[in-house]
Structure formats: structure tokens, C-alpha cells
Design goal:
Length: 296
């Protein structure tokens, strides 16, 4: 077995993970082990597995990626795997979950923590508890974003009548965001969607993508604030209660459609804050340690 006997269950607004530290670089998981750990019936259950390791102990990283971590003073890397065993470039909620774990286990200290990911180094800042966002709140500097043409994709759900127009956003991983009440969508309301079934995006992208469905709930143009509700089907694990990069992609799309930079978005797992500028996105939300588990 290439995973340690002791692992920890975590979640960040319901996006749940099995995590463990590997400071000696001995426990890189196999796809079968990831699928076992994340199985909700025969394993522990999770949307992904996160190994906290030193960058040079992550076998798929290029020398350039390892050098980026070292040159920026980043000691720890988030080696994230989707529930189906595939590698993932980035997971915004996962960064908060593994950072809380790193603080709890003594691998991180101070107010800010540099964390390597396959989408570059991210900086997380520990904040006070927030009445709306919850306990153990972290702000993640998610970095640069890239957006395609607005509404360039057709989004459908097999077995569900109707369609919506979607916008491509690259957050280090690919997303297509569909805003449902913009006059172009004929899909059911956000709450009524069947997201167990994987959405279909046309034209087909070169790589599989996460798909977000969004409803705008309120806008205050003078204050530059908006609220919205989102659901997401994530590649590699299906519908999840929250998706950090998906929330960022959603806010980028809503900004392009409305001119509003700051969004509070409700997902099935909780509430998060997203702040968008021309150069980057910041994601703020809570994280939770559920418990330690000893594998037999």
C-alpha cells in the first residue's frame, strides 16, 4: 500500500477530501488507492484525495514547476487527485482544506501560507471567523484568469429539456459557466437541475471541463456587490456541494455580464466570497477538519 495508515477527513463548504501529510515523500497514491479512499460506500468517501508533500516528491511535476516553488519559498505542495484517480491542476476549496490541516499539524504557521499547486503557487491568508462564511476562514489568492467569448457554448443535460449558453473560463483548470435567467436559457431553475447526469458542452473543448449553472439573486451596482446561487458538475467526481475554481469562474463570468466585481455566492455546501479584478481572483471561505481515520 502506497498510502499511510493514518489519514484525515476534511471539507471546505461541503467539498470533501481525504488528506494526509507525506513529509518524507513515501506515499504517492495510485489511482486505485484514490478511488478506494473516495468511495462513499466501500471507502471513506470524498471528492478527492490531497497529499501534502514537498514539491520534489511529486513525480509528475516538471523541473520548472519544482523550481517555481523553491524560488518563491514554497515548501509544501498540494498533490490533488480527483475521486476517479485522475490528476487535478487545481482545487480552490482543497487549498483551504489542506491549509487548515497544515496549520493544525504544525506544517504551517503565521498569517499567510504559500502552497504549491499544478496551477502555480497560491497564497492563503488566515482570517477571523465570519458570521456568514463560517469558522476557519481563509482567503486564497487564486491568481490570473482567462475568459473566452461570452455565451460561446451550448450547454445541455441529457434527459433534461432545454439548453443554456455557457462561457469558457480558465482558472488553471477549465470551466464553462451558464447563467440561467439571462433570457437565453430554457433549462429548469438552478434548484431543479439533474446534475447527477453529466452536462454536455458544444462545441467540444479539447479537455473535459467543469460546468457551473448560476442564478443572479441580487445586484447593487453602486456598491459593486452582487449575490448569486450556483451548482456545479465537476469533472472526475460529478456534482459536488462546492467548487472553489468554479466559484471563481462564475464570478469572472458575472463580472463580464454585469460589471460587478464582488460576489457572495451560495452553493449547496455554504456561502463564499469572490473578488475579481483585471489581473486576479480572490476566494474566501471556511474549512473544516472532520476527523482522523486509521486504515486497517
Amino acid at each position: 500500500m502506497s498510502i499511510p495508515q493514518q489519514v484525515t477527513k476534511t471539507h471546505a463548504t461541503g467539498n470533501d477530501f481525504v488528506v494526509y501529510a507525506d513529509p518524507e515523500g513515501r506515499f504517492e497514491p495510485t489511482p486505485d488507492e484514490v478511488r478506494f479512499l473516495d468511495d462513499r460506500h466501500f471507502g471513506i468517501g470524498g471528492d478527492g484525495v490531497i497529499r501534502l508533500a514537498h514539491p520534489e516528491d511529486v513525480s509528475d511535476l516538471t523541473p520548472e514547476q519544482v523550481a517555481e516553488c523553491r524560488e518563491s519559498g514554497t515548501e509544501w505542495f498540494m498533490d490533488y487527485r480527483n475521486a476517479d484517480g485522475s490528476l487535478a491542476q487545481m482545487c480552490g476549496n482543497g487549498t483551504r482544506a489542506i491549509t487548515l490541516f497544515a496549520y493544525d499539524r504544525g506544517y504551517a504557521s503565521g498569517d499567510a501560507f504559500r502552497l504549491g499547486t499544478r496551477a502555480g503557487v497560491k497564497i492563503l491568508t488566515s482570517l477571523d471567523d465570519d458570521e456568514r462564511l463560517g469558522h476557519n476562514v481563509f482567503r486564497v489568492e487564486m491568481g490570473a484568469w482567462k475568459r473566452g467569448e461570452l455565451d460561446a457554448f451550448d450547454v445541455t443535460i441529457p434527459g433534461t429539456p432545454g439548453s443554456a449558453r455557457g462561457t469558457y473560463v480558465d482558472m488553471g483548470n477549465p470551466h464553462v459557466v451558464a447563467v440561467l435567467e439571462d433570457g437565453k436559457a430554457t433549462l429548469p431553475a438552478v434548484e431543479d437541475l439533474d446534475l447527477v447526469t453529466k452536462p454536455v458542452v458544444a462545441p467540444v473543448l479539447e479537455s473535459d471541463q467543469n460546468v457551473e449553472f448560476v442564478r443572479i439573486d441580487s445586484m447593487d451596482a453602486e456598491a459593486g456587490e452582487g449575490t448569486a446561487t450556483m451548482r456545479v458538475n465537476e469533472r472526475g467526481c460529478g456534482e459536488t456541494l462546492s467548487c472553489g475554481t468554479g466559484l471563481c469562474a462564475t464570478a469572472v463570468t458575472l463580472r463580464a455580464k454585469t460589471g460587478i466585481d464582488h460576489w457572495t455566492i451560495t452553493v449547496r455546501g455554504g456561502v463564499l466570497r469572490i473578488d475579481v479584478s483585471d489581473t486576479d481572483v480572490k476566494l474566501t471561505g471556511s474549512a473544516t477538519l472532520v476527523g482522523d481515520i486509521t486504515l486497517l
